[in-house]
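REQUEST
  id: r-88c1
  op: predict_structure
  target: LysR family transcriptional regulator
  payload:
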Amino acid sequence: MDDLRLSLRLLRAFMVAVDSGSITGAATMLNVAPSAVAAAIDRVEAEFGAALVVRARARGITATPAGRALAARIRPLIEDYSSVMKEGYALGLGLQGTLHIGYYAPVAPAFLPRILQEMANDNPDLRFNLRECDNITAQTGLLDGALDVALFAGDEVLAGVETRPLLDLPPYLLAPRGHAICQRTRPEISDLKDVPLVLLDLPVAGAYVRGLLRTAGIVPHIVATASSVEMVRSLVGAGMGLAVLNMRPRTSVSYGGDPLVAVPLAAGTPLHLVSGRAEGAPRRLVQAFQDRLHGWFGLAEAQDLITR
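RESPONSE
  id: r-88c1
  status: 200
  body:
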């Protein structure tokens, strides 16, 4: 049985007619012809196979007990529908509600807060939910509706995700201040042979570094792995080893207070940072955020995230 054979328009016409006790009165309230209201009542009665109103030429209509019960059930349905439509229009017309952002961009805290604060200043009713995730989780979040927009490495893009490029991120070495490798202008990947390494062990990032080392014919000497950039930075700062990273935060000190140095590598294919959303027309809020995000990445200060 098709549960959607009666439209909300027909049910609303029936409810208004029962409430007003008049087909003509209901037609005036709904701004339709009386014949349309009468036809709606006929359709509803035919669907349920019951007499729901009693028609009296002089006195209008009177609902039967079944008709009154049905009208009472329809009323909250119509009210819920009106509420959903109002919320939907608000989402489309104004920068309000909650923007759900996923990021697989290890130093997103270096730039996202400023962009979001500017949006919040212009739109006091706006709220933000930020979720750090890996590359695949960010994209599946877009596809299942858990996220509105995401930042991630766009080297592996799932079907149904639409991306816009933000920045190309070449690899660099992270070392504690005073390490001998800091004396070299542009060390080679081959210089990492037998060097203790700390690996950012996340999807894409971990495979990317291992691929660079493998291409250079190096069997990596990994002494520690971590799933966060700041832990990697702190391990490097403490002297555990060096790390190969792509995006640089706007500080040269680890959480542990140790000074760090970013040294550009002579070669290495960059990772591609992108913003993404599910394919299709975006909400105005999503579009506004992406426009601000890409506007910031067009500024000179965005280049501070790159080690050259």
